[in-house]
Design brief:
The complex is a heterodimer of chains A (115) and B (113). By secondary structure, chain A is mostly beta strands. Chain A contains no helices and eleven strands. The termini of chain A are far apart. With 113 residues, chain B is mainly beta. Chain B is globular and about 40 Å long. Chain B contains no helices and nine strands. The chains are: A mainly beta (115), B mainly beta (113). The A-B interface holds A 4, 31, 33, 35, 40-45, 48, 50, 56, 58-59, 88, 90, 92, 94, 97-101, 103-109 and B 32, 34, 41-46, 49, 87, 91-106.
Chain lengths: 115, 113
């Protein structure tokens, strides 16, 4: 009963390094999302994928790219990390787009520090 | 999406009902009210949602006023494990950009022994 699994759980990067955050869900959900959460703030949507093969920008997409590898997996890539990208990153999935009256399930987060 | 207003913090005694208010005075007719919570920096957890009728599930009850401008999440018998930040979100039923749950700062609920 894994739900939404994110890897890694913790990461420290140097400015300018690149990395990919991985996310997989085993609930056969169509839609997947990447959020970031900064200290004392709510979550902000970075990118989402309404269905396999589609991706769209959210509220704060600059500095990130995503890939919906298949129905299960949705990765987030930082091409050249910056200190402003220090945050906790959450992946989520839902059966359909959340506006379609369904709930979203979240992973446990990836805590990223860029120095 | 409609903007929501929640108190930044609330306290509740263990075993008592916790009533968390949310104001969404600009809500549209096709917007649902969702509640999520986040326990100690874990991933947010879905609690309940509704359109205009009151809703109840195993976790909580959602009371939506008749004019839909505000709602209250009720945890009937709060426990220490209910200490969390609670987010009230309104979201359109269809149309517009998909999947965009807009989280505010929420209400930090502290359940005390």
């Amino acid at each position: 009963n894994a739900g939404v699994t994110q890897t890694p759980k913790f990461q420290v990067l140097k400015t300018g390094q690149s990395m990919t955050l991985q996310c997989a869900q085993d609930m056969n959900h169509n839609s997947m999302y990447w959020y970031r959460q900064d200290p004392g703030m709510g979550l902000r949507l970075i990118y989402y994928s309404a269905s396999e093969g589609t991706t769209d920008k959210g509220e704060v997409p600059n500095g990130y790219n995503v890939s919906r590898l298949n129905k299960r997996e949705f990765s987030l890539r930082l091409e050249s990390a910056a200190p402003s990208q220090t945050s906790v990153y959450f992946c989520a999935s839902s059966r359909m787009g959340v506006f379609m009256n369904t709930e979203a399930f979240f992973g446990q987060g990836t805590r990223l520090t860029v120095v | 999406d409609a903007k929501t207003t929640q108190p930044p913090s609330m306290d509740c005694a263990e075993g008592r009902a916790a009533n968390l208010p949310c104001n969404h005075s600009t809500i549209s007719g096709n917007e649902y009210v969702y509640w999520y919570r986040q326990i100690h920096s874990q991933g947010p957890q879905y609690i309940i949602h509704g359109l205009k009728n009151n809703e109840t599930n195993e976790m909580a009850s959602l009371i939506i006023t008749e004019d839909r401008k505000s709602s209250t999440l009720i945890l009937p018998h709060a426990t220490l494990r209910d200490t969390a930040v609670y987010y009230c979100i309104v979201r359109v039923r269809d149309g517009g950009s998909q999947g965009n749950l807009i989280f505010g700062k929420g209400t930090k609920l502290s359940v005390k022994p």
